[in-house]
Design brief:
Number of domains: 2
Oligomer: single chain
Number of strands: 9
Distance between the termini: 92 Å
Mean pLDDT: 84
Number of helices: 3
CATH superfamily of the largest domain: Rieske [2Fe-2S] iron-sulphur domain
CATH topology of the largest domain: Rieske Iron-sulfur Protein
Length: about 200
């Protein structure tokens, strides 16, 4: 083989070796990246885990007066009620029938420790879990309900064991539930947006 042919052959082989080296390196790096992504992502909390602990933003723009909206936060039902003036007027009429009208022995943030148990009287935010055995109270907002009697002012009723709560979630006397329904931490991000689970900066 002539010197020129030998040099040409070595040049071609060198080019092939360089190409194979580059291709192998790129393939190896790509494979490492594909392997690393799921490995690193496994260190992050799952979407479900984040959802269970993270605050929940709720749009209440379409919530009609007298209606209830139910959402989930930390695996619990949250009741959001837009109370009418008539519903608010009922709160002062049955104080003597309540076990803890001042919410002294019940759980709520300081800013909800009032008659309406809320930041804004119009909107009630409650954990929808009976404080007796953890059942789900149902809304019975209409006064003088056929099942609950002529003196019923409207509120929440737990059909499992008969506990009753008024339109602020305050428990009535002589029922199994020991305390008022809980009020979770929350704040208004805007007039029609709530953040359940965080009250940083709440008034």
């Amino acid at each position: 083989m002539s010197v020129e042919a030998k040099a040409l052959d070595e040049g071609m082989n060198g080019g092939r070796r360089h190409f194979l080296l580059v291709a192998t390196t790129v393939t190896g790096l790509a494979g490492a990246a594909f392997t690393a992504v799921p490995f690193l992502s496994s260190w992050q909390p799952s979407a479900r885990a984040q959802a269970l602990g993270a605050p929940v933003e709720v749009d209440i723009a379409k919530l009609e007066p007298g209606a209830i909206l139910k959402v989930e936060w930390r695996g619990q039902a949250i009741y959001i009620v837009r109370r009418t003036p008539e519903m608010l007027a009922m709160l002062a009429k049955n104080v003597s029938a309540l076990r803890d009208p001042e919410s002294a022995d019940s759980e709520q943030p300081d800013y909800a420790k009032n008659e309406t148990r809320s930041v804004k009287p119009e909107y009630l935010v409650l954990v929808g879990v009976c404080t007796h055995l953890g059942c789900a109270p149902i809304n019975r907002f209409e006064p003088a309900d056929a099942e609950l009697g002529a003196t019923w002012p409207g509120g929440f009723y737990c059909p499992c064991h008969g506990s009753k709560f008024d339109l602020s979630g305050r428990v009535f006397k002589d029922v199994p539930a020991p305390t008022n329904l809980r009020v979770p931490p929350y704040q208004f991000l805007a007039d029609t947006r709530l953040l359940i689970g965080s009250d940083t900066g709440a008034a």
